[in-house]
Amino acid sequence: MLDHLIFTPADIDLSRSPLAGKIDAETYVLGAFNPGMTRLANGNLLLMVRVAEALKTPTFDGQVHAIRWDDGAYRLDGWPLEMVDTKDPRKFLIPGGGWKVMALTSLSWLLPVELDADGRSVVAVHYDKAIAPRTSYQCYGVEDARISKVGDRYLMTTCSVSPERHSTTLYTSDDALDWDLQGIVLDHQNKDMLIFEGLVGGQYWAQTRPLGDLYFAYPPGSEWRSGPSINLSRSPDALHWKPHDKPGIRPHSATVSTARMGGGAPPILTDRGWLTLWHGVEPSGVVGIYRTYWSILDRDDPSVTIATEHAALLEAAPALTEPLKDSMYIDNVVFTTGIADAGDFYVVASGEADLACRITHIGKDVFAG
C-alpha cells in the first residue's frame, strides 16, 4: 500500500506566493496541508493545497501580529502580548467580551498541485491558478478546499475567515483549474461542508458540521454523545441549502475517540451506497488526536447509515513526518480531505500534522460487505 507525503512546505516557492512583494515582513510556510482532491480531464489528480503562510517573526515591539487582506493589499495588525493567549501556535486568543475571539498567526491561500494518475509524484504546480482572498469576508484567508464533481461541473467548498463571519463559500469550474467564486453558501461557522459527488433524488446533497458553544444532552443511556456532529443539507442548485430534517452521523457514546467529529472527503457512490470518510477527534492536549473513519450511507436516503467501522481507517504516521520533525508544531493529526477512484483501490488525500499532504492507497476490499 502506498502511503507517503507528496507535498510539504519545502516544495513551495514563496517568491510566487500571492503575498510576495505585498507585505513588508518575512514569511514562511507554516503548513501545506488539507488538500481538496479531484481527477482532471487528462486523468491526472489535482490537489488544492491549503498554504498557511505565517510571519517568521510575529512578535515584535511588545505585540503579536497577524496578516490581513484589505482591498487588494496585505496589512499587519498587532495586539499587545498582555492581551492575548498564545498557547496554540496556529492562533492566539483575545480574552474578554464573554465569548471566544481569536486571530490567526498565518494567512491561508490555495495552491493547485497536479499529480500523476495514482498520486505517486508531482507533475506541475500551478502558481498562476492560486486562490487568494479577494473579498472582505476572506480577509484572514481561504482554507480547506473540498472538491466534488457533479455531472460536468466541479464544485469546491472552502472556509472563508474574517471578523465579519466564519462562513462556507463555493467556487465552480469547468476544468478544476480556473475557478469562479459564487459567494457565501453557509452563513455560519461550518468547517466541513462536503458536496456529494452525484445527485440524490434530483437534488444536490452535502454534509455539514455547524459549530456552537451549546449542545443539548441526549438522555441517559443513549448510544449517542452530544457535541459537534455531521449534519445533512439539500439544494436544488448547490447555492441555496436547506438543512435536512433527519440527523446525519453522530458521535457514539461508547468511545471518546469520536467525541468530536466532522466530514472528511466528499461522499462518493459505490455499489453499497455513499462512501464517506470522516474525522473523529479524541480529546487530548491542546488540539486532540485526529483519526479518519468511514461509513456507508444509503444511496436514496443518506441519513441512514448502512455500514461503519469503529476502528480508525487512518491514524497519524510519525515515520512519515520524521524528516520534518524540526518543522512540526502539533502531532497526532491526520485529516482526510479527498478520495479518488483508481480501479482496484482508492487514492486518499489527507493533511498530516497540519504540515504536509499525505497520499494513501486503500484497497476497495476494505469497504466491502
Automatic annotation (TrEMBL):
Q: Which domain of life is it from?
A: Bacteria
List the Pfam families: Glyco_hydro_130
Q: Name one GO molecular function term.
A: glycosyltransferase activity
This protein's UniProt keywords: Glycosidase, Glycosyltransferase, Hydrolase, Transferase
PANTHER family recorded: GLYCOSIDASE
Family membership noted in the UniProt record: Belongs to the glycosyl hydrolase 130 family.
Q: What is the protein named?
A: Glycosidase
